[in-house]
Design a protein that fits this description.
Elements lengths: L16 E6 L1 H4 L8 H16 L3 E6 L2 H9 L9 H24 L5 E6 L1 H5 L1 H16 L3 E6 L13 H12 L3 E6 L19 E2 L4 H5 L14 H13 L3 E6 L5 H8 L3 E3 L7 H8 L5 E5 L1 H8 L9 E6 L6 E5 L5 E6 L4 H7 L4 H8 L13 E3 L1
Parallel strand pairs: 1-2, 1-5, 2-4, 3-4, 5-7, 6-8, 9-11
Antiparallel strand pairs: 7-8, 9-10, 11-12, 12-13
Length: 377
C-alpha cells in the first residue's frame, strides 16, 4: 500500500468496506442546529461510494449537541454527566432522523446501532455486533453507529468516536477507516503555528508521531482531538486496517479528499488474527503488570509472561481479566488475559516456578499471561 492509496479511497477493489467517522462540529453548528446542506453533500459521497461497490458504515457524533439545543441546556450539554446523558437521549432521535432522511434521498436505508464500551470489550457481545453489522451490510443498509451516551458513564465509555470507529472497523472486518476532521490531517506541530507541515503518510506510530498530536478539540463540541485520532490509528494499524484523517469542513468532503489526495494516511503495520485484533483493541484493562528488562526482551521475541519477570502488580483483576504489561518506565508493551487473580500475581511476582507452589498452595500454571492470549502493543 502506498501514499497514493489516499486518492483511491473510492476503489472498491482496494477498500471494499469502509468506516466513516463524522464529528459533532461537522454535523452540528455552534447553535446546535444540524448542518443540513453539508450532510446532504456527505450523503451524496456515501451514495457514490456504494454505487462503486464500496460498503459503508458511519460512526456519527452529534446526539449530545442536538439534544442540548433542543432542551436548552447550558454548555452544549457537557456541564455534567447528567446533562450529557439527558441531551443524548433526546438528540439521538434527531440524529437518527437526519441520517434516515439524507440517506433515504438516495434510496439507502439507514440502521441505528448504539454501543457501549462493554459491547466491544466482551468477546461474545463483540461477535454479536460483528454479526449484526455483516447482516445489515448484506441487506444493503448503512449502519449508523454512536456511543450510547445516555447510559455510558465516565468509567465505562470510549469518550470519543475516533477509537469507537477503529473498534467498529475491527468488528466489521473493514479495510479502511476515514476520520473527518477540522484540519487537513496530522501536522508536525500545532497547525496554528507558523511553519507547521502536513504529514502525508505515517508508516507506524512512534513516540515522535504521538508528540505531534494535540488533545484539544478546537470546536468545543466534540470530545476528541488529534491525540484520540492517533490512538484510533494504533488500534487500526495492528489489525491490518488503513486509517486516513481528512478535512471534513468542505462540502462533499470525501470527494474533495479523493480528488486532491490531501490528508494523512496511516499504513497498516500487521494483520493480527481476528481474536488477537480484538484483544489488542480492548481499552478497559483491569490491572497492570510491570516487568523487568529481561522479561520485556523475551516478550518482544514472542514469549509468554512468566512470574519471575514480574516486578509490580496493580489493580483488582480476576483470572481471565485484561491486564496491561508495562516496562519499568511505564511504557506499555503488551496486553493480555491474566491466568491469576491480582493477589495471586502479587504472591508469585519475581518467583521461580519451584517457589510459586509454596506461595500459592497449589501447583502453579505455566505462566501469568500466555502468548496465545496476549498481543504486543
Amino acid at each position: 500500500m502506498s501514499l497514493s492509496a489516499l486518492s483511491r479511497l473510492a476503489d472498491a477493489a482496494q477498500y471494499p468496506r469502509l468506516v466513516l467517522k463524522v464529528g459533532s462540529s461537522l454535523l452540528v453548528d455552534s447553535a446546535g442546529a444540524p448542518r443540513s446542506t453539508w450532510l446532504a453533500s456527505l450523503a451524496q459521497d456515501i451514495a457514490a461510494l456504494r454505487q462503486g461497490g464500496t460498503e459503508v458504515i458511519v460512526v456519527s457524533s452529534g446526539a449530545i449537541a442536538l439534544g442540548a439545543a433542543r432542551l436548552g441546556l447550558p454548555g452544549r450539554g457537557r456541564r455534567s454527566l447528567a446533562d450529557a446523558q439527558a441531551a443524548a437521549a433526546v438528540g439521538q432521535i434527531g440524529l437518527a432522523g437526519l441520517w434516515t432522511d439524507r440517506l433515504g434521498a438516495h434510496a439507502i436505508p439507514a440502521a441505528q446501532l448504539l454501543l457501549t464500551l462493554s459491547d466491544l470489550e466482551d468477546r461474545r457481545r463483540y461477535l454479536n455486533v460483528s454479526a449484526t453489522l455483516a447482516r445489515l451490510l448484506e441487506a444493503g443498509a448503512v449502519p449508523v453507529i454512536n456511543e450510547n451516551d445516555s447510559v455510558a458513564t465516565e468509567e465505562i465509555r470510549f469518550g470519543d468516536n475516533d477509537r469507537l470507529a477503529a473498534r467498529v472497523a475491527q468488528a466489521a472486518d473493514a479495510d479502511a477507516v476515514v476520520l473527518l476532521s477540522d484540519v487537513d490531517g496530522l501536522y508536525d506541530r500545532d497547525p496554528r503555528q507558523p511553519g507547521a507541515a502536513l504529514v502525508p503518510a505515517v508508516d507506524g506510530i512512534t513516540a515522535e508521531i504521538m508528540a505531534m498530536a494535540s488533545s484539544d478539540s478546537s470546536s468545543g463540541l466534540g470530545s476528541g482531538g488529534m491525540a484520540s485520532k492517533l490512538q484510533a490509528a494504533q488500534i487500526a494499524e495492528r489489525a491490518g486496517i488503513a486509517l486516513a484523517i481528512i478535512n471534513g469542513t468542505h462540502d462533499a468532503p470525501l470527494a474533495n479528499a479523493i480528488a486532491s489526495g490531501t490528508g494523512t494516511l496511516f499504513l497498516p503495520q500487521r494483520a493480527d488474527r481476528a481474536r488477537k485484533a480484538w484483544l489488542g483493541g480492548r481499552m478497559a484493562a483491569a490491572g497492570t503488570l510491570r516487568v523487568d528488562a529481561g522479561c520485556a526482551e523475551a516478550l518482544a521475541r514472542g514469549a509468554s509472561l512468566l512470574a519471575a519477570g514480574v516486578v509490580g502488580v496493580s489493580g483488582s483483576f480476576r483470572r481471565g481479566d485484561l491486564v496491561k504489561i508495562c516496562d519499568l518506565k511505564g511504557k506499555a508493551l503488551a496486553q493480555g488475559l491474566s491466568e491469576y487473580d491480582a493477589p495471586e500475581c502479587m504472591a508469585i511476582a519475581g518467583k521461580r516456578e519451584d517457589a510459586q507452589a509454596a506461595a500459592l498452595g497449589y501447583a502453579p500454571r505455566s505462566c501469568v499471561v500466555h502468548r496465545d492470549h496476549m498481543v504486543l502493543l
